[in-house]
Design brief:
Helices cover 47% and strands 14% of the residues. By secondary structure, it is an alpha/beta fold.
């Protein structure tokens, strides 16, 4: 039986006047609990984790766990390009009460496949939390090869892969060769991935449409691919548009600002979209039915 099934939201970190806005963060957690999705993922890419101080990073995870109160799975983003740092962040998340950990590939320093194996192995052996490997070569400059993931799958705490390589063949090979759960890391690829055995998605657009993404993954998990495809068609333009107009999480934060869900504030080097792009995003939100004209 899969451990990770359904829709997990890659949670934004709301900021106000340069500081983490914890009251809005609590409201967002309640929103997702109410939507009935499988879980929330604080301090990932969408949570602007590279710009959080260590203290803020730890505090965001602590507070999200407190706000969740055991009602929803908390998958803490605790990866790093330094193995010792990733271990420290992960052990803190475990002490705080997180349910699992998302481990991004080390970025910038470009380790070899042996380096990746020993990096993830060291983290997995330092925690009892289920580990989700995050394979996103477009951001990290290195891909975790399928051979490496197959090796890592033998470690008992490594439970799943967030697959954000864009390759369905890669996902098929992975599905064939090991028993790890595979979660989509790209909203628009959720249905294709689930059609070949994926179990869900860690979703950016679920920040604004959690119920719709849940409906898509619920249908696919039930084998009702006709309904799943209807939800895929409904969400596709928003998924592609929001993630192509500017680097995540710039567009989703702008959308949440338009919807009154949180301030659109970002931390440098993330920078707000210009007015022309915001107008385009607003039109997409109107066409989806999120905003009135």
């Amino acid at each position: 039986m899969s451990m990770f099934r359904g829709t997990y939201v890659a949670l934004v970190t709301p900021f106000k006047n340069g500081k983490v806005d914890f009251s809005t963060l609590e409201r967002l957690v309640e929103f997702h609990v109410g939507a009935g999705i499988a879980g929330i993922v604080p301090c990932g890419t969408t949570g602007e984790s590279p710009t959080l101080s260590h203290k803020e990073h730890d505090q965001v995870i602590e507070e999200v766990v407190k706000f969740a109160r055991g009602r929803i799975h908390v998958m803490a983003g605790t990866g790093s390009n330094a193995t010792d740092e990733a271990i420290e962040l992960t052990q803190h998340a475990e002490r705080a009460g997180a349910d699992s950990t998302l481990q991004v590939s080390p970025y910038y320093n470009k380790p070899t496949q042996d380096g990746l194996y020993h990096h993830f192995k060291a983290i997995a052996e330092a925690t009892s939390l289920p580990v989700v490997l995050y394979n996103i070569p477009g951001r990290c400059a290195v891909e975790i090869a399928t051979d490496t993931i197959v090796r890592l799958a033998e470690i008992k705490t490594i439970a799943a892969v967030k697959h954000a390589t864009g390759s369905m063949d890669g996902a098929s090979e992975l599905r064939t060769r090991c028993g790890l759960d595979i979660l989509s890391g790209d909203d628009s690829m959720t249905l294709p991935l689930m059609s070949i055995g994926g179990t869900g998605v860690i979703s950016v657009i679920a920040n604004v449409i959690p119920k719709d993404m849940k409906a898509l993954t619920d249908a696919a998990l039930a084998g009702d691919f006709k309904t799943a495809e209807q939800w895929h068609r409904k969400t596709f333009a928003l998924a592609k548009g929001m993630l192509s107009m500017a680097t995540n999480p710039i567009p989703v934060k702008a959308a949440m600002d338009m919807l009154g869900m949180c301030e659109g504030e970002l931390r440098l080097p993330m920078y707000p979209m210009n007015e022309a792009l915001k107008a385009k995003l607003r039109q997409m939100a109107v066409e989806y039915g999120l905003l009135k004209k």
